[in-house]
Amino acid sequence: MGKRTDFLYLSEEDMLKAGVLDYARCIDVEEEIFGLLSKDDYRMGGAKYNSHGIAVSFPKESDIPGMPLDAPDRRFLAMPGYLGGRFHIAGMKWYGSNITNPQIGLPRSVLMVMLNNVETGEPVALMSANLVSSVRTGCVPGVGVRHLARKGAEVCACIGAGPVSKACFEAIRIEAKDLKEVLIFDIIKEKAQAFADDVARKYGLKASAADSLEEAVRPADIVSVAASSVRPVNLRNEWLKKGSLVIMTGRCNVDEDYYSSAKIIWDNPKMHDVYYDEHLLLPEDKRFINGIGVQIYRMVYEGKLPALLQQPGLGDVILGTREGRTSDDDRILFIAGGMVIWDLGWSYELLENARRMGLGISLNLWTDPYLA
Ligand SMILES: NC(=O)c1ccc[n+]([C@@H]2O[C@H](COP(=O)([O-])OP(=O)(O)OC[C@H]3O[C@@H](n4cnc5c(N)ncnc54)[C@H](O)[C@@H]3O)[C@@H](O)[C@H]2O)c1
Known about the structure:
Rossmann fold; binds nicotinamide-adenine-dinucleotide; 11 helices; ornithine cyclodeaminase, domain 1; 2 domains; 8-stranded mixed beta sheet; 372 residues; 34% helix; 7-stranded parallel beta sheet; 17 strands
């Protein structure tokens, strides 16, 4: 007789009951994961164990019947990983994305997480992950603010007024305890205004839609960039004041002299080193164009900054092995690129909550595996 395997299925409703929107708890969990990152107690895919994931994309044209065609956000992406420490879990975030989804009442991307037993590979849980992904994306900047923002930071600029920018703000406001004012810039001003109205109503903060990027950024102690690439976000060195923290969750350019004068702290230098290698495989004119932090890659390539693996990660700062902010005047740039291990840790935490609360549906994989 073989071994029976059951796993837990958790719908979005179950995830909500399990506390997926608990930003404060998620910030603590992501902080713990930064420590594991710094100690190398994790694995992602690829030869250097640090690949973000692997995408399936489609051709622009095709004669093959049924072949999907390329379009904005038309892709599938698999992000596998292992997370150590108390989590000791393997798994994968897997999603499909299509910009036309909202027209039929769906989010642009539809995400699931599968968690697996590390020893046997059996599924442990299959869960809806849109909210997992969005909350963990917001909470990584929250950890950044906890460790890198100037104490007493009062003004935050949010660049972009989409769901990711909003998730980032949710976590930033938890950590920026002295926050008084929020300036929001989006190329669609009505979106910025609606976001500002929401912030003012929910949190009683002074919040407004800025007329320009400069207007939002100049007074800001914390600048959170999470805009899409419809139009590039080009920050100027002179706009970024002493003591400011810039958090790049989405793509953004800054004048080169900023990078030489600010402290750069990465989410994970080892992952960016893999991205860097991938850029080197591209033709010269396509290198260092797309991606978060690619301007820094170019400066490394040109010998203007140290190799990525020599640069500090936030996990190193948290564990005290590398320096973070040492003065209220430091200008710090935190690159928050996104990794599956954030999803695995937060999903695992929610699975534990769900088990305690008796949520979800237990599904049977087999009672007696046919091939055992
Ligand atoms: N680091 C991570 O883990 C992670 C995860 C998910 C998404 N992201 C990034 O977050 C970005 C935003 O995601 P979203 O789902 O909120 O996208 P979205 O398209 O729903 O919203 C983006 C907003 O940015 C605005 N915008 C575009 N260009 C701008 C500019 N130059 N200045 C100001 N506003 C501008 C758009 O008008 C829109 O309101 C994505 O493009 C992606 O790069 C990062």
